[in-house]
Amino acid sequence: MIVIVAEKPSVGRDIARVLGCRQSGDGCIVGEKYTVTWAIGHLVTLCEPDEIDEKYKKWRMDDLPILPADIPTKVISKTKKQFGVIKKLINDKETERVICATDAGREGELIFHYIYDQAKCKKPVDRLWISSMTDEAIREGFEQIKPDSEYEGLRKSAVCRSEADWLVGMNASRAFTLRYNALLSIGRVQTPTLNILVKRRREIEDFKPVEYYTVTADFGDYTGQWFDEKAEEEKTANRIPSREKADELAARVKGKPATVRSATSEEKKELPPQLYDLTSLQRDANRTLGFTADKTLKLAQSLYEKWKLLTYPRTDSRYLPMDMIPKLYQTLKALPEPYRSLEGGMERKEDGKLYISKRIFDNSKVSDHHALLPTPKTAQLDKLPPDERNLYDMVVRRMLAAFYPAHVYDALRVITDCEGEAFRSTGRAVKALGWKALYQQEQPAQKTRSKKKADEEEDTAALPPLAAGDTRTVKKADVQQSATKPPAPHTDASLLAAMEHAGREIEDEALRESMKGAGLGTPATRAAIIERLLQVGYAQRRGRAINATDKGVQLIAVVPEEIASPEMTGKWELALDEIAKNQRDTERFMQGIRRMSAFLVEFARDNAPKIDFPEEMRRGKGGTKRAAAVKPIEGAVCPLCGKPVQENTKAFGCSNWKQGCHFTLWKDGLARSGGPQLNVKIIQLLLKDGQVKGSTGTLALADGNLTFTPTGADAPSARMPIVYEKKG
Description:
Layout: E1 2-6, H1 9-19, E2 23-25, E3 28-30, E4 34-38, E5 44-46, H2 49-52, E6 73-75, H3 80-91, E7 97-101, H4 106-118, E8 125-127, H5 135-143, E9 146-147, H6 152-180, H7 190-206, E10 211-218, E11 223-226, H8 243-253, E12 257-270, H9 278-289, H10 293-305, H11 325-334, H12 386-402, E13 407-418, E14 421-432, H13 451-459, E15 471-473, E16 476-483, E17 490-491, H14 492-500, H15 509-514, H16 526-535, E18 539-542, E19 545-548, H17 550-558, H18 561-564, H19 566-580, H20 586-606, E20 617-619, E21 625-627, E22 631-637, E23 644-647, E24 651-654, E25 664-666, H21 680-689, E26 691-693, E27 697-702, E28 705-710, E29 718-721
Parallel strand pairs: 1-4, 1-7, 7-8
Antiparallel strand pairs: 2-3, 3-4, 5-6, 8-9, 10-11, 10-16, 11-14, 12-13, 12-15, 13-14, 17-19, 18-19, 20-21, 22-23, 23-24, 24-25, 26-27, 27-28, 28-29
């Protein structure tokens, strides 16, 4: 008998059906040759410190760092019964071999080997490695099954990742919790990801808007914007610092003759986008559909497992191996309408075959899994739920787009002179839509437009046929007032990009590819890391924006750069990737992790700065929790009674509240209506001056309310009463 261990019951049932196993057992399905059983995610995990040594039940700085030579594992009590089923089956005397059929990735490898080791199994192991859950893919996987030894590097990498997270997390979280008497969660990947959010929040808060003016001349059949020719290549070339200068310039050219100095056209091409990996899919789904990274992963997993319409989604490759060419043709033939009719735009040779490009097919860029593709199974689109339908549509169109011709256009540029001033006009004349023809009609859910797309649309304005020497008259000249904008808050899309490249913002697609492996986490774990930051209160969502909270800012202020550095953690992730490829020694990596764990304890004990964490829950004696004390705000007095203002986790309020003063400003009171999140800096300025003018708008205390008036006449304002009256 051969026992197959899948990662989930649904996957186990699919494998059993393909192999002809039909007899239901307790936690398994039995056939003549195979018995298929399954985990339910993780059945075994690393022990807690107090399960290794009882002395760790009480948290004491003197007992840190905790650096056991080996970290034992334990069976998770919630799923103990299913572990017992697997243990009995794989150790049965009738069992000849075991097949690991967990998900084909690092985490799937860890799930199986923790179960195998905990069960003390000695049976030989083979590895089923498949990239889609169609019946054909499962059969092919069993035909090409390999010995487990070929995946030893991946297993070592998985164990190193697990133990590294345990050592850093356990030691750092205990050390900093003890140091500040506040429950603090610190992680090898979680904390540098938080640092990215904190850095962006500081950039926004420290940003000082600069007003400037632009002048646009109307030449009748086209317009042009004034620019400083000496600074032509700079983004600020069209900015005029004062209203007076802008008005003077506009008045000087109005009604005057103008002459076209030059009119040029340059052909440009935009190559089709590459195929999706998980992270690029999550980013696009966030931008166009508003999905969080976690939601996209779950939908992709559903399309993979339940609907059998996508290949393995947790991939980090955007390329296909050469042996995928026949499978690709099968996939194209299986596409349902409306996609079959879109195949006509794909570039083909005279014999009808597709062009094979290195941008798509490259064996050296594929390791565990190839790029995300539809499977050769015809989708019944009317049966798919709307969200799955939209995500499937994105993947299909991206596959088709990769084989479409380039988008070709003429970039038009006209310089018009008037009264010694230069005005620039730009436009775009499309010569061949190419791959962009696939995106002319957006899906109903795809309503948002990126700034980049809006800028492109401005450049596509039609220009009349113009040549040097043509003359016009300036019909009118408009002056527009603008101001520099702060960096935008991170979204799932931008945060995933920052995580993928360890905090470095890399626009160039080829350079981004070369940096893969040196990011924060993996495609499979990044969504969970973002959700974890939200769960522990270090970050919060406002619409699509993800912002660091005060608690998150405080944490980054007290931890050393070594654990907060995205680059450092990116190097660790690269090392784990090298271990998976048998290019790095595991012991050397773990020694570095142990040194870092000891350093974090020492830093928390001896060098951590003095900061009071106003946590809603604090550690008390014997591990119990008590409510946190409030924190006074320096220089802030109540506008109603003149007493000091204090802060807790949810609001700023009067310290005289026991005597009846109900002055309260909820931190998220304006955020609920589109305004800013209140913080200490804002409150100090607000209570001192009565108003605070920022890059996004103005806060003002007046008539018993705090109001926020955004910059921009069309934006809605937000209002919150400054006195909170208890009901009843």
